[in-house]
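so the lab meeting is tmrw and i was supposed to have these ready like two days ago... anyway. pasting both below. for each one the top line is the aa sequence and the line under it is the structure tokens. i havent really looked at them closely yet so no promises
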Amino acid sequence: MIGYILVFLIVMKIMRSTGRISPVWGMVSVVCAMLLDLLFNNTLVYYNDFHFYDDKIFDKTERLMAIYSLILSVVFTLIIFYIISKFLKKKNWRNEVKKSIINYQIVGFIITLLSIYSMFYAIDIAGLGGITYYMILWRIIFTIIVVTYCFRYYIQIKQAKDNKKNLNPSILFLRSFDNAKKTSRGYSKEILLNTVYRNYFDHWIFGYTFDQVLTPYLNKNIGEVVALGNPNDYLPELGAPKIYMPDNTDFNSEPWWETATKLMNKVKLNIVFESSGNNIKRELEYIRIHINPYKLIIITYPKDYKVNDWNEFYNVCKNINIEIPKSFPGGGVVLTFNSMWQYKVSSVFNNDINSMVKYIKEKKVLP
């Protein structure tokens, strides 16, 4: 068990250096280690004439053999994925959704089958007793996790492809990439039924981002939503369609900034979420100088997301002459602005997304 955890962590570290930070890579490596362990185990049994299965006794010699087999499988797995990482570093795949079909539909299906096979193998040797029962349990849990992740990433691929068709955005999300990835499991069944996902298991296991829940309501009641994509994303996150630049484009470069400013001017509404960092400061500065105040609203994250950037966000707004409340107004609050850049604060909506969007629609009637 410790060996497999070590494999997962090291492979994720290796893949991070390539920009491929999806957990599916770690899971593939664990399945690979399992199968190599099985191969080495059977090879050692065959060539050393061990009666590993016949006598039903897991003695000291066979324990040593199992440890040796595990060490070999871990070492070989790390070598394999190190070679794969060298290959991936030469590829510019991050923004090519078509490549994701290979990575998550085909590979995802294969590792699902292999992990299920590994699980049944563990059940088959249950007669050895002792630690093998724990082996069965954790392999069953691991198989469920693998299958869940593969289906989740398949959904992301499908949504990314669908979102690229006939995109004509009316609303732009501007927010910290770190905050955008935070999730909540605090949404009611009623709220989830009105999203395009309606996956209670996914919501319970992973949680939903604010982007993920708010976007379907805005699409349905106000207009199509789009967001700037994190350059470090391997796949576009669920929620609003993401606009990306090529892999070799720095977020602070002029081509990227030109894309961002064109979107800020094109859309009918810029929604800024409580955030920190230089990027949000630069975006707000541009809005303050070039954009009509009626085209800006600010939303705070519902309390379940545990975002605590208000003090820094207030200082950013103050320095560029956008007036907002000095004290945190509460979770899930909407701030609108009049022609003099004076703000108005809504009531606290928190996770009541339906009421929040109705308020935005009432205050911001888009032509």
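ok protien two:
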Amino acid sequence: MGQFFQEILPIASTIGVCGVALLKGDEPERYGSTIMFVAWVSSTLLIWQRLGNVTLTNLLFGIDLVVLISLSALTWTYRRAWLVITTILQVLQIFSHIARDLGAKIDNLTYYYALTVSGYAQLLAILVGTVIAWRERAALASFGIVDQPGASAPASARSIRSSVLSTPKIATKDPNRGPWF
């Protein structure tokens, strides 16, 4: 059972969530999942190298810092709630590293749990953001609104809203449809 939680669950959850985000998400979900996947692969490769404890934590801190900068840039560019949540959780990971480096009495298990639980919460936030983007795209498609390449679902809805809302109800083909369709 210990092998499942230490080896199989991280691999399956990371590959599964990042794969779903790459296949079904919009641009921010694809970028966020790529950032998280590359960080996970590089962290895993560092852990397998069996470096010293101080060297390993410093390298993991560097990876987490690069992820924080990348997620902050994504949060600044795209206004998505899941991006804010993942960035805040990444700040929690950075503070865990800093607190341990400054000499706070954090044992190894607490440190490991803080990094692991926040990492799984980030994957959950990416998955929820992907599902929301996927459902928004499906809802827009059900109204006949086709995705514009490179635009997220709300952006493509905003780009056609002014022309559709300006048409009166009588001018629509179906009299039962309101002016918002």
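from a quick look at the 2nd one: The two ends are 53 Å apart (CA to CA). The helical segments are 2-24, 27-48, 53-77, 81-101, 108-142, 153-165. will dig more after coffe
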